[in-house]
Amino acid sequence: MDSFSSPASSIGSSDPRQISPEQFQNLVQSQFAQAYAQEFLETIRDKCFKSCISKPGSSLSGSESSCVSRCVDRYIEATGIISKALMQRPH
Amino acid sequence: MSNAASNPELQRILMQEEEKRMVNQVVSALTSQCWDKCITSTPGNKFSSGESACLTNCAHRFLDVTVLIMKRFQSMN
């Protein structure tokens, strides 16, 4: 939230016609970053819920929560692998 | 942000950021699809070599399919 509100408020305090390119870039970047983070979080939640909670019990078990932690780490790692692979030439 | 449309400098910044966003979107969408195809058991402390190879292959085959479909469309006209 903070990354989103700080550039916006700094722009709000000045004349919107006087927005500097740097301010504009910060604003666009923080808005895109926030949207991306939101989507990323939701995707990871859905994937890890599916992978780790096969039969929901009365509370989250220790093994389920450790599965979720591992799943989050692996999903972030998978994103890196896919990103790297897309930049390479396919073989 | 009415001046963003008329200021070429701001327009350039917007297009540049939009392009980065689109790249990130492709990576996100593909990661989701490849995760479903490649990670079939509960996630471990590290990927097996089979899992990481599957993810890399998945991204490469996606590029192949993209090229193939582009060629297919080009041959239609």
TrEMBL record, chain A:
Places the protein is found: Mitochondrion inner membrane; Mitochondrion intermembrane space
Superkingdom of origin organism: Eukaryota
One Pfam entry name: zf-Tim10_DDP
Occurrences of domain Tim10-like (ranges): 28-87
Keywords: Chaperone, Disulfide bond, Membrane, Metal-binding, Mitochondrion, Mitochondrion inner membrane, Protein transport, Translocation, Transport, Zinc
GO molecular function terms listed in the Swiss-Prot or TrEMBL record: metal ion binding
Protein's organism: Turnera subulata
InterPro entries reported in the protein's UniProt record: Tim10-like, Tim10-like_dom_sf
Name of this protein: Mitochondrial import inner membrane translocase subunit
Main location: mitochondrion
UniProtKB/TrEMBL annotation, chain B:
Span of domain Tim10-like: 13-75
Gene3D superfamilies: Mitochondrial import inner membrane translocase subunit tim13 like domains
Protein location: Mitochondrion inner membrane
Top-rank taxon: Eukaryota
Pfam family, one: zf-Tim10_DDP
The entry's keywords: Chaperone, Disulfide bond, Membrane, Mitochondrion, Mitochondrion inner membrane, Protein transport, Translocation, Transport
Gene Ontology cellular component terms for the protein in this record: mitochondrial inner membrane
Membrane topology listed for this record: Peripheral membrane protein
Record GO biological process: protein transport
Main location: mitochondrion
Coiled coil: none
Keyword Transport: yes
Function: Mitochondrial intermembrane chaperone that participates in the import and insertion of some multi-pass transmembrane proteins into the mitochondrial inner membrane. Also required for the transfer of beta-barrel precursors from the TOM complex to the sorting and assembly machinery (SAM complex) of the outer membrane. Acts as a chaperone-like protein that protects the hydrophobic precursors from aggregation and guide them through the mitochondrial intermembrane space.
Family: Belongs to the small Tim family.
Subunit-structure text: Heterohexamer.
Swiss-Prot/TrEMBL domain comment: The twin CX3C motif contains 4 conserved Cys residues that form 2 disulfide bonds in the mitochondrial intermembrane space.
Name recorded for this polypeptide: Mitochondrial import inner membrane translocase subunit
Taxonomic lineage: Eukaryota, Viridiplantae, Streptophyta, Embryophyta, Tracheophyta
